[in-house]
Amino acid sequence: MAHTFEELVHKRRAADLAQHRVEELRDSYGPPMQHRWTPRQSHTYETAVRAWRDLDRDARTAMTEYVKEGGQSRHKIEAKLRRAVQQDDRDT
Predict the structure, then answer these.
(1) What is the pLDDT of residue 35?
(2) pTM score, two decimals?
């Protein structure tokens, strides 16, 4: 599957937002070993972690395919991607 650079930015941004959501939940609920989470909290947290894991995997897979298709240095593409995602963060 061919990926554009804009798709990579979108996928990385989605994975980063999902990671941020997991961190927010962890901060809100407290450490699971110190605070007894309700079943609903556990379910919400586990769902968020799965979403983050899946989105991150999709972003990494797309990056690998993009690099293979373009024949460019993965390091250079990752740096360009980080800059693009950071720029998106500043623009929003």
Answers:
(1) 77
(2) 0.84
